[in-house]
Design goal:
- This protein is an alpha/beta fold.
- Helices cover 44% and strands 14% of the residues.
- The chain contains 12 helices and 11 strands.
- The protein has helices at 17-34, 55-65, 83-96, 113-118, 129-140, 164-173, 192-199, 224-244, 253-257, 263-274, 281-295, 309-320; strands spanning 2-7, 38-41, 70-73, 76-77, 101-106, 158-161, 177-179, 212-216, 218-220, 277-279, 299-302.
- Helix 1 (17-34) links the parallel strand 1 and strand 2 (38-41).
- Helix 1 (17-34) runs parallel beside helix 12, helix 3 (83-96) runs parallel beside helix 5 (129-140) and helix 6 packs parallel to helix 7.
Length: 324
């Protein structure tokens, strides 16, 4: 599998949001030096734990600091945007950084009701994702009702961040997919949803064959216990969000250990860590080899976060050295 990184610009308790963005830029520079294939950023709105609400703006900054690594969005949420504007933004990025830009798109709405209202999105509104996907693509290809600018020699490729239904959209459109979460958690020898995506894939001008990227947290440390500890800040934040409805900044392991734990919190943290791949480099290689065999994935997009930036960079370095 090719190896890539998704960085969500996670904020940290006691640090300004700007530090999260600076950290993303530093991580992208290091990812290029380590030889990663892609470096993607995310879109989240009004979330205390995430500083990145505008992938195109952040990607422009990343492009200015890197030279070769592919840069993209994981992803732009089409329900929040007009298709023409999305196409214009990514055509502009492609014009500035030719041959390096990816457009990953998703269909998630805002995290909470106030955020959805601020984005002018109604949870019960008709699902127009398939139509929006087609419209963005038409603008990128220069075949839309109007001509999106700037004109580029080769438009950026599109990827679909896919749930089960999203896989159907992607197969019909002949687009690559990024999958994670419940789809990857089964126990079978194969992933039936991915087999169906491949079997029903309709070749397109830009993609003659299906392409699967799997996304999950991958943490490498000197031993399994240390790797679990480094995953604790993200897992703790997820558990807190289910309790409060607000996804918080990362906290240090020491601060988390000093707080009150309920049995329910422990259960949620353990369940979250269990969805990751973690341990020593050797343990992670074995797990990733098994994942590759089960999913047939072409690429891994590691979405790892932790409070300790130095430990995160070290994990990235160890991951870059694996032959999977």
């Amino acid at each position: 599998m090719k190896l890539s990184i998704l960085d969500r610009s996670r904020t940290r308790r006691g640090a300004p949001d700007s530090a999260a963005l600076t950290g993303t830029i530093e991580r992208a520079v290091r990812a290029e030096q380590l030889g990663f294939h892609r470096f993607w950023v995310a879109e989240h709105h009004a979330v205390p734990g995430i500083a990145s609400g505008s992938p195109p703006v952040l990607l422009a900054a990343l492009g200015a600091r890197t030279d070769r690594i592919r840069l993209g969005s994981g992803g732009v949420m089409l329900p929040n945007h007009q298709p023409l504007v999305v196409a214009e933004q990514f055509l502009m990025l492609e014009a500035m950084y030719p041959g390096r830009i990816d457009l990953g798109v998703g269909r998630s709405l805002g995290f909470t009701k106030p955020v959805r209202e601020a984005l002018r999105r109604d949870r019960n509104a008709p699902d127009t994702f398939a139509d929006d996907l087609h419209e963005v693509r038409s603008y990128l290809d220069g075949k839309g009702a109007v001509t999106a600018r700037p004109h580029v020699t080769s438009p950026p490729p599109m990827f679909v961040l896919a749930t089960r239904r999203g896989l159907d959209f992607a197969s019909k459109a002949g687009l690559p997919v990024v999958v994670g979460g419940p789809i990857l958690r089964g126990s079978g020898a194969r992933v039936p949803e991915l087999d169906r995506y491949r079997d029903s894939f309709v070749p397109s001008a830009g993609h003659r064959s299906p392409y699967v990227i799997v996304s999950l947290e991958v943490m490498i440390a000197e031993d399994e216990a240390r790797a679990r500890e480094l995953l604790l800040p993200e897992s703790w934040a997820l558990a807190q969000s289910s309790r409060t409805g607000e996804f918080p900044p990362l906290e240090s392991v020491a601060d988390i250990r000093g707080q009150a734990w309920t049995p329910r919190l422990q259960e949620q943290v353990d369940a979250s860590i269990a969805t990751s791949v973690h341990g020593t480099a050797e343990q992670v290689k074995v797990a990733l080899d098994a994942l590759a065999a089960r999913t047939g994935a072409d690429e891994l997009l590691a979405s790892t976060s932790t409070f300790d930036r130095a430990a995160l960079f070290e994990s990235d370095q160890q991951l870059s050295l694996l032959d999977v």
